[in-house]
Amino acid sequence: MSRSTVPVSLAELERRAADERSEDGRGPDALIVCDRLVRIFTAGGVEVQALQGLDLVVRTGELTALVGASGSGKSTLLNVLAGLDVPSAGTASVAGFDLTAMDAAARLRYRREVVGFVWQQAARNLLPFLTAAQNVALPMRLGGGRIRRRQWAARVRDLLDLLGVGHCHDRVPHRMSGGEQQRTAVAVALANAPVLLLADEPTGELDSRAAEEVLTALRTVNEELGTTVLIVTHDAAVASAVRRTVAIRDGRTSSEVLRRATRDGKGAETVTTQEYVTVDRAGRLQLPAEFAEKLAIRDRARLTLRPDHIAVHRDDAGEVLRESAPEDLRGAQADGGRDSRR
Ligand SMILES: Nc1ncnc2c1ncn2[C@@H]1O[C@H](COP(=O)(O)OP(=O)(O)OP(=O)(O)O)[C@@H](O)[C@H]1O
């Protein structure tokens, strides 16, 4: 069997990859761009690195779930993206707003106009003494004229209808179910037509039926209004119902799952699921632990470039040098190892 080798060095490939991942390489549709984001908390003289160089790009119009173990940094990231917290290092921007360099006025404008937020606790999202309609109208009143006054009432009604809670228009929160409260909270978050909706465990306190309704509401917002939606969740049903699920581990993005729907000639839909590791701007990727363990890959790996993929091999240089005759070694190099063995 003949295998093709491409006559370029690994250093040259690294240089070309770095060029391609330059600033422009993000593309104009990149809404959220986080580069090597770091957030360090100091509590009682002890430092906690909640984010440890996190990279993330989310494109306009995506519906993405963010998953990860407790303490992995999901809420910290969401707070930074919401403009509620400031990173210690690295860069983060949303819709061109630099989240590391906004003054107080710009931060307020960003929180009112660019981003909407839904918390897990319904009580945190709604004022208890206002009706659903009054809760949704409140951000418009505070929004500095972004939505014209004469449009407020119609917009309130349209949002509540879109989210399936039009019947709650005149009800105060304690006369609504938990699911109705959360869907009203989504309407509140959308009042000033933000480009990005962030939701931190929006189904965390709901039974499975109410959770499904909230998820449907978030999908409707994404599909019908075109709002980019990022949901932090522990709920496997939520994570598997969106097209992109990004996993965070130890304050960094580690892997992601993409789901693609295709239709055959008769209109039947098939969803294919593919798991990816994240490649950061410097070209670093993390091998999944189970893959590395299976092949006993520890300190280093050998790469070979194929026409349509890169193969990662266990470091067998020591064994080859011990066991191979010079002719065998030359054979091994001709077999694809030349570029990466130094
Ligand atoms: N204000 C804070 N002060 C000190 N440490 C904090 C603070 N906020 C978060 N941390 C720490 O940062 C780390 C990440 O916390 P974060 O809340 O972002 O994780 P998470 O993935 O959202 O967890 P969970 O799923 O349990 O909500 C944790 O170790 C947490 O204890």
Automatic annotation (TrEMBL):
Entries under InterPro entries matching the protein: AAA+_ATPase, ABC_transporter-like_ATP-bd, ABC_transpr_LolD-like, MacB-like_ATP-bd, P-loop_NTPase
Origin: domain of life: Bacteria
GO cellular component: plasma membrane
Native source species: Streptomyces carminius
SUPFAM superfamilies linked to this entry: P-loop containing nucleoside triphosphate hydrolases (SSF52540)
Record PROSITE patterns: ABC_TRANSPORTER_2
Keywords per UniProt: ATP-binding, Nucleotide-binding, Transport
Name of the protein in its database record: ABC transporter
